Amino acid sequence: MITEIAVVDIVPGQEQEFEVALHKAVSTVLSTADGYISFTLQKGIENPSTYAFLIEWETLEDHTVGFRESELFTQWRGLIGKHFSSPPRVEHWQGISL
Asked: Got the DSSP string for 18-31?
């Protein structure tokens, strides 16, 4: 399993509209993607127009190929992208055992 962490800056004043659009995007688009496991949303305290998505995928390729190269990604961005003030910063993480 891998975790995609995306930090997204939203146009100030559009936070509520973004959250409504994001809920729809997760429930109708992202949740149908092959390899999708879960989605967690965090909102910045110091910067309330900044959000972090933590999306769990079965494999890296489920996100980078299966989702990003599909029509689902186009639908996802169509629902939420208009609220972005800049492109998201995305990284992938893998848990380790200590």
From this structure: HHHHHHHHHHHTGG
